[in-house]
Specification:
The complex is a heterodimer. Chain A is mainly α. Chain A is built from nine helices and no strands. The longest helix of chain A has about 30 residues, at about 135-165. Chain A is flat, with a radius of gyration of 21 Å. Chain B has a single domain, classed as P-loop containing nucleotide triphosphate hydrolases (Rossmann fold). Helices cover about 40% and strands about 25% of the residues of chain B. The longest helix of chain B is centred in the last third of the chain and has 16 residues, at about 175-190. Chain B is globular. Classes of the chains: A mainly alpha, B alpha/beta. The interface of A and B includes residues 119, 121, 127, 139 and 223 of A. Chain A: Belongs to the binding-protein-dependent transport system permease family. HisMQ subfamily.
């Protein structure tokens, strides 16, 4: 057994931190679009719009039923062979697309369950004052569902941050890709991956810290 | 009556599965009339109210409010929306929007449904909250209000809509006894403005005070109706007599 090269690890930290913005960029943009898409999918699943519902169920089934890595390869290497306008798709865009579609499928089911958990009286009150279905969902139902779904959605966001590490397989140099390169140069694989594990861990813990404030905000209507 | 009825209900029927809850209800209500519906539990009183704004879709029958007429056989989504915008509804369980403050509960529909400018809606909400004695609770969320306060906001939300017909579905039945009085007081205030009201309640004494007409329902039908004095003191039908004996 050899000793850990602490000096190397310390030197590696600022190098890898330089790639954190790209990792977070992919995760945040991915989460942003995934939330919008998942809300639309969830609302559709609640109202079960004829024909469209079959497509939505197929979509959710496919993106939940296949590995994220397979989906990323499909978008980056596969689809451009068929759809020529995607030939020049870059790894970052393909990663964001893949994360968005993959996680929206999971999140749609959580949001759907949260929507169905909103008390029937809330739907009826919104209908009774003459709101359209869209107004009812936007002003009354979705905000209340958000409170219930928030802890689960934060979990998916955590998963998504870690999921960005797969972008290195598409040639993107983000935190994981950079670690890979550094380790290949130094042969200090243990040190390098230990450092990158710590970086992901700290990012996720920081998020968990923010989660508390999010939940306080979402619970403000329910404090007595 | 020479003046045509403001509200006219014809042949309204509703079944849940094999159970017939409303059977061929015919009812005219004049503008400014305050009608109270009484009767045993499970006789379709609440369903009648809920069919009038299509929270429950009637199986057949026509509802006319002013110049809007909606037939159950061919009610479109637009018809239903228009009907709901001519009525307002006070729920037994208050049903305040849980994610909105007392003020927002009132402004929400004024802004999104009636298209009022935000400042006007807020002014109206604050005036309504003063009327309901809750000016100091404008920024409170429903979870922080007592049952009686919540129901007063619920009535305020319905008042501010200036609907042609206000529907009250057992507004005091879910309340602790200590809050019933303040809610009935507020309903009295509304009644004094000659707002057209259709109220389902078990508060017979209250009905006697404020109603122009009391309707007794049993088994999904209107059994008997008349001015409070007549219906309560000289009921004709044995079912009405039996019910009044039980509740008084």
């Amino acid at each position: 057994m050899r000793a850990l090269d602490f000096e190397y690890m310390l030197d590696l930290v600022p190098v890898l931190l330089g790639y954190v913005p790209l990792t977070l960029f992919m995760a945040i943009i991915g989460m942003f679009f995934a939330l919008i898409l998942a809300s639309i999918l969830a609302v559709e699943r609640v109202f079960k719009i004829p024909v469209l519902d079959s497509f939505v169920r197929l979509f959710i089934s496919f993106f939940r039923g296949t590995p994220l890595l397979v989906q990323l390869f499909l978008f980056y290497y596969g689809v451009p062979q068929v759809l020529s306008f995607l030939t020049n798709i870059d790894g970052v865009t393909a990663t964001i697309m893949g994360l968005t579609l993959h996680f929206s499928a999971y999140m749609a089911e959580s949001i759907r369950a949260a929507i169905l958990g909103v008390d029937r009286s809330q739907w009826e009150a919104a209908q009774a004052v003459g709101m359209t279905q869209g107004q009812m969902m936007y002003h009354i139902i979705l905000p209340q569902a958000a409170r219930v779904a928030a802890p689960t959605l934060v979990n998916y966001f955590i998963d998504m941050i870690k999921g960005t590490s797969l972008a290195f397989t598409l040639g993107v140099t983000e935190v994981m890709g950079a670690t890979q390169k550094e380790a290949a140069g130094s042969f200090l694989y243990f040190e390098a991956f230990l450092v990158v594990a710590a970086i992901y861990w700290i990012m996720v813990e920081a998020l968990a810290f923010l989660q508390r404030y999010l939940e306080i905000y979402l619970n403000k209507a329910h404090a007595r | 009556m020479t003046k045509p009825a403001a509200i006219s209900i014809k042949g309204l029927s509703k079944s849940f599965g094999a159970t017939r809850v409303l059977e061929d209800i015919n009812l005219d209500i004049a503008e400014g009339e305050r009608v109270v519906v009484i009767g045993p539990s499970g006789t379709g009183k609440s369903t009648l109210l809920r069919c009038l704004n299509y929270l429950d879709h009637p199986d057949s029958g026509t509802i006319r409010i002013g110049d809007l007429s909606v037939d159950a056989d061919k009610a479109s989504r637009a018809d239903i929306l228009a009907l709901r915008r001519k009525t307002s509804f006070v729920f037994q369980n208050y049903a305040l929007f849980a994610n909105k403050t007392a003020r927002e509960n009132i402004t929400q529909a004024l802004i999104t449904v009636k298209g009022q400018p935000k400042a006007d809606a807020i002014a109206r909400a604050d005036a309504t909250l003063r009327e309901t004695g809750l000016a100091d609770k404008a920024d409170a969320y429903p979870a922080a209000l007592s049952g009686g306060q919540q129901q007063r906001v619920g009535i305020g939300r319905a008042m501010a809509l200036d609907a042609d017909l206000m529907l009250f579905d057992e507004p005091t039945s879910a309340l602790d006894p200590e809050w019933v009085g303040e809610v009935l007081d507020l309903m009295r205030q509304v009644a004094e403005k000659r707002q057209t009201m259709l109220i389902v309640t078990h508060e017979i004494q209250f009905a006697r005070e404020i109603a122009d007409r009391i309707i007794f329902m049993d088994g999904g039908k209107i059994v008997e109706q008349g001015p409070p004095k007549q219906l309560l003191e000289a009921p004709q039908d044995p079912r009405t007599k039996a019910f009044l004996r039980r509740v008084s």
